[in-house]
Amino acid sequence: MLARAARGTGAFLLRGLNILIPVLDRIRYVQSLKEIVINVPEQSAVTLDNVTLQIDGVLYLRIMDPYKASYGVEDPEYAVTQLAQTTMRSELGKLSLDKVFRERESLNASIVDAINQAADCWGIRCLRYEIKDIHVPPRVKESMQMQVEAERRKRATVLESEGTRESAINVAEGKKQAQILASEAEKAEQINQAAGEASAVLAKAKAKAEAIRILAAALTQHNGDAAASLTVAEQYVSAFSKLAKDSNTILLPSNPGDVTSMVAQAMGVYGALTKAPVPGAQDSVSSGSSRDVQGTDGSLDEEFDRVKLS
């Protein structure tokens, strides 16, 4: 769509049928109402941290009022281009170099707002502005690359240290859990062992009590004393045979080869110990039995005297 401004009458012509008076009227300005693309030339700009940049861009605008665009400014495209360059230098001066690269979208929006505020009286509206290229000085570029490399090395070192720390923590936690489990297992083993030993002692005590009970019952039967005498004799002989094996101090009788006398002495001791004193019964004890007991006691005393003298 084209809009024409007629010189002379001051009329503004649109597309379609228009009548012009010869000599008095003629076409002076032709404005396109389509969106216009303008390349903004490369220019120098100084950032907030005093870094000189070479920057260019692309401007997209549209003529909203052909009359203002024709009579409000001499060359609207040139005016908008110069306004975009000055606005871009002004906005870049407010930002540091790092923010220029991070905040390109906000920088473009700020330039568009500044152009629209100034170009409203020209009948022009800026739709968008895009920064094409940003060129930094070679030394600054090298510094930026070194900074990027240092930052990457820093992140790599931090990640490696964190990995080492996590590994050490995992190893320590594993050792801790292993020690806890080992102590719990040892505790359970000791408890089970103690319970087993207690059960064994109790079983042995019960068995011994049962054996004593059976032995007591057997002694009360017929010929029980004879059986007890035989058992005592056997134990005496067995104990005498183990004296030299279990201890360095040996108690030997005067006649160790006479097994009959040893058994007789053991039976005499057992008989003396197993006879319970009964009131009034000592008078009825035969003189022969008394002589046997006295003889047995005398022989034992003689044996102990010989051991003491030896």
Automatic annotation (TrEMBL):
Record bears the keyword Mitochondrion:
yes
Instruction: List UniProt keywords, sorted A-Z.
Output: Mitochondrion
CDD domains on file: SPFH_paraslipin
Name the membrane topology term.
Lipid-anchor
Q: Is Mitochondrion a UniProt keyword of this protein?
A: yes
Task: Give the residue ranges for region: Disordered.
Answer: 279-310
Q: Where in the cell is it found?
A: Mitochondrion inner membrane
- Where is each Band domain found? 1-148
Q: Where is the composition biased (Polar residues)?
A: 283-297
> Out of the domains of life, which is the source?
Eukaryota
Q: Output the GO biological process annotations, alphabetical, semicolon-separated.
A: mitochondrion organization
Question: Which GO CC terms are listed, alphabetically?
Answer: mitochondrial inner membrane
| InterPro entries registered for this protein in UniProt | Band7/mec-2_domain, Band_7, Band_7/SPFH_dom_sf, STML2-like_C, Stomatin_HflK_fam
The function of this protein is: Mitochondrial protein that probably regulates the biogenesis and the activity of mitochondria. Stimulates cardiolipin biosynthesis, binds cardiolipin-enriched membranes where it recruits and stabilizes some proteins including prohibitin and may therefore act in the organization of functional microdomains in mitochondrial membranes. Through regulation of the mitochondrial function may play a role into several biological processes including cell migration, cell proliferation, T-cell activation, calcium homeostasis and cellular response to stress.
- Similarity section: Belongs to the band 7/mec-2 family.
Q: What is this protein called?
A: Stomatin-like protein 2, mitochondrial
- Species the sequence originates in: Enhydra lutris kenyoni
